[in-house]
Amino acid sequence: MAARSLSLLLSAAALVAATDPSLKLKTFVDVLDLEYSFDPVKAAYWTALPHHRRTPFAVSPDGQTAYLAYLDSSGTGVHVQHLHPPTMTAKGPLVSIPNVYEAGGLVAHDHGFALLGNEPIATTVANAPPSGTPVPAIYRYANGVQQWKTFVAGPGVHADDGLSMAPDMNGDLVWSDEAELYGAYFVVTDYSGDADGHFGDSIEYVNDNGTLETITGASSSWGCSHNTGIAFEAADAAPFASICAEDQGAIWLNTATQGMTDNGVKISNENTTNGAGGEAMGGMSGSYSSLARFVNSTSYIFAWVSRGAVDLTANTWMGDGYTSASNRTNGRRTAMALFSDKETKVSAQASSVVGAVDGDSQVNWVSPSIGADRSNAHAAVFDDEYALVTWEEIAQPSCDIIAFGCSGAFTGTHFQLVNVAGDTIGEPIVSENTYVAGDMVTLANGTICWPYVNMDWRLDLPVGGGLPETTTKKMSFGCMSLV
To answer: Which of 21, 139, 352, 399 is 20 to 30 A from 4, alpha carbon to alpha carbon?
Structure first.
């Protein structure tokens, strides 16, 4: 009898262990007082529809300090605030970095941080960009004091390929302990060379003493044409895991190629019109927290939004092996892809067969229903098995301009639990007053946290078209845990 009872108990315990967890959302509303005002809204390219202005967020390896970066509402100068992670309240002194036009990525260390930003170079400097257009740089601080600043574009950086600048800081910054390198991936405009006046992207690596390193097979001066979104995550060695959305019709896992060549891994076919691709990775002020590496694993998860793809035609501009696509739906859906390592997609690549009617059969849709519009997709991991995919939704959208965003009444942020096999777990949590407006960070206890501004989030009007004043001196945080 005792043996039978023990067997029943073990069977019950195994059943419990096999049960998937659920999500629990906790918010810290207006918990952080900002010393300087911050405008949380940025106008989208072309449509001027509202996007969240990114607030980079990171937590130190020892878990004792978090850092929040935000742009001064004056439009010049980035402030980095030390935080106490359990309460998300101010912990240490504020660090202000003057003349920086945008914060585009943040790495936390135990006694400091590194920031990717952009600032103008004096026109008296030889080969400086025209008209004070900013140039991306990495800023390293320890104990509140700047240790170094390294420009990753501009004068002297890959001059033979064409000098570049960054009018808008769409990009990301990561750090690898194993490689002892910072990696920065960002959108650029060239102001010399063959690509003068055109948009592309660049991947650059800097070591811990601030030296820019050119690494064959990893560094890139010009990768994806008119890049409409990037995703970037650290790896144990360069090249780091990278994804780009380009203006010729595809999203590529381009870790191995750093570009948009057809020997890369095609994740998705997308309609691209007028240099836009549906804001797959967030558009203006996007390109963060859409690619995440599972804990203690070589696997990655990627989230984006897509209208799907039908009727593949030959892309005669690019040549053999490249296709263009029409949209399957008007509103966008949220999708995810999984990679077994930084260069390998788990499931099939997107089709490149000219004449194919179905160009999106490989897509793993997280929000499969058609009709609504999804935007602002992000992904973060809890551990080695579970991840969080999140997006914003408009139930009845107006999508008047092809390849751009949609407008309408905001109907909530969705938080969906998924697993490493690519399955959705349960129904999403929906919040109408919690948003993802900054980096999603996994704390030591497995909780995922991010910053946002407590506001009436509206997606029905363009910036300057009647929206109320949004400047604030308060920051809120959301955290999601498994239960």
So the answer is: 21
- At 64, list the tokens: 């004792």
| Half-sphere exposure (Cβ direction) of 210: Cα atoms closer than 13 Å | 15
Instruction: Name the β-bridge partners of 90.
Output: 83
Q: Based on the number of CB atoms within 10 Å of its own CB, is 437 exposed (0-12), middle (13-18) or buried (19 or more)?
A: buried
> How is 132-143 classified by DSSP, letter by letter?
G--EEEEEEEET
pLDDT tens for the chain, residues 1 to 483: 444 554 444 444 444 446 999 999 999 999 999 999 999 999 999 999 999 999 999 999 999 999 999 999 999 999 999 999 999 999 988 999 999 999 999 999 999 999 999 999 999 999 999 988 999 999 999 999 999 999 999 999 999 999 999 999 999 999 999 999 999 999 999 999 999 999 999 999 999 999 999 999 999 999 999 888 999 999 999 999 999 999 999 999 999 999 999 999 999 999 999 889 999 999 999 999 999 999 999 999 999 999 999 999 999 999 998 999 999 999 999 999 999 999 999 999 999 999 999 999 999 999 989 999 999 999 999 999 999 999 999 999 999 999 999 999 999 999 999 999 999 999 999 999 999 999 999 999 999 999 999 999 999 999 999 888 889 999 999 999 999
In the chain the domains, ranked by start, together with CATH numbers, are: 22-482 (2.130.10.10)
Regarding pTM above 0.90, the answer is yes
Q: How far is CA 330 from the centre of its chain?
A: 23
Cα 481 to chain centroid distance, Å, stands at: 21
How far is the C-alpha of 414 from the C-alpha of 430, rounded, in Å? 5
Number of neighbours of residue 188 by Cβ within 10 angstroms: 29
**Calpha distance 40→472 (Å, rounded):** 8
| Sign of the CA dihedral with 383 first, then 107, 184, and 77 last | positive
Q: Are 68 and 451 in contact (CB under 8 A)?
A: yes
